[in-house]
Each structure stands twice: as structure tokens, then as C-alpha cells.
Amino acid sequence: MTRTIYVLNGPNLNLLGQRQPEIYGHDTLKTVEDLCRANCAEGFDIRLLQSNHEGQIIDWIHEARHAACAIVINPAAYTHTSVAILDALNAFEAPVIEVHISNVHKREAFRHHSYVSLRADGVIAGLGIEGYAAAVRRVCSLLG
Ligand code: DQA
């Protein structure tokens, strides 16, 4: 069985570290990748991907059906809009953890609803990039 954890990131997260640092912090997605690897148990591997395009994220979720043992996903703004990403995740049979760097519940009302939460096995919000580390650790303990 594959032991690769897909860590998928949605739109604008390529700008992590530059974009609204008062909300998202100063760390970059490269730091997130290093953090995920550092928190990954032995025998597991990390594949961190980011796209600004909904269809690309869906294609990676489809690929994960055969190539990943779990998905950690920060869908960014698609969290609040994308039935298509929810449908793709519903076709993925292993653990899914949803991560938000900011506490979306403390922000605008449109960020309070998540389509992805209808599928996620766990949801983390407001822990900064440490939320990714917690998600990776959770997946590793779930899968042993
Ligand atoms: C985000 C929260 C979303 O509402 C927002 O659109 C993002 C990032 C977060 O990580 O806090 O782009 O998912």
C-alpha cells in the first residue's frame, strides 16, 4: 500500500508569506512542506501541491485515489464555493483532513461554511501553519 500523504493547497496559497501576513503569517509554502515532512512518521512520504485552478485540484484528488494513503487539504477560497471538490473528495476512500491557517469562524460570514467539511474526517482552523503538522500527525496515527 502507498504511504504517500497528499498535501493539497488551493488558490493564492502560492503567495503564502507575502499575502496578508497579518492573517496568514510570514512562512512560505516551502516551510509548510518542510514542516509536513518533519511531522511525518517513518514509512510515510509527503507530496505537497498547490494550484490556483479548481480543475487541477480535482485532478490531483482523482490521482490520490490510487497514489495516496490520505489527503490533507487547504482548499483556500474553494472551501466555501466548490461542490466539485467535495464530490471529488467523496470519491476518495482514505482519510481527509481539512486545514485552514486562519480561524475562518472568526472572519467574514461567507468563510463560516465549508463544503469540504461535509467529507473531512477532521477540520483544523486557526493554528497557523502548525495546523498542517497536526493534520499530518493525525493521518500517521490513524493509519498506524
Ligand atoms: C484559508 C481561509 C479561506 O477562507 C481563504 O479563502 C484562504 C485561506 C486559510 O488557510 O485560512 O485562502 O483557507
Task: Sum up the structure in keywords.
144 residues; alpha/beta; Rossmann fold; 5-stranded parallel sheet; 5 helices; 35% helix; 18% strand; binds 1,3,4-trihydroxy-5-OXO-cyclohexanecarboxylic acid; DHquinase_II_sf; EC 4.2.1.10; plasmid
Your description of this structure?
With 144 residues, the protein is of the alpha/beta class. The protein has one domain: 3-Layer(aba) Sandwich (Rossmann fold). It is 35% helix and 18% strand. It has 5 helices and 5 strands, in the order E-H-H-E-H-E-H-E-E-H. Strands 2-1-3-4-5 form a 5-stranded parallel beta sheet, sandwiched between helices. Helix 2 runs parallel beside helix 5 (130-143). The mean pLDDT is 97. 1,3,4-trihydroxy-5-OXO-cyclohexanecarboxylic acid is lined by residues 12, 74, 76-77, 79, 100-102, 104, 111.
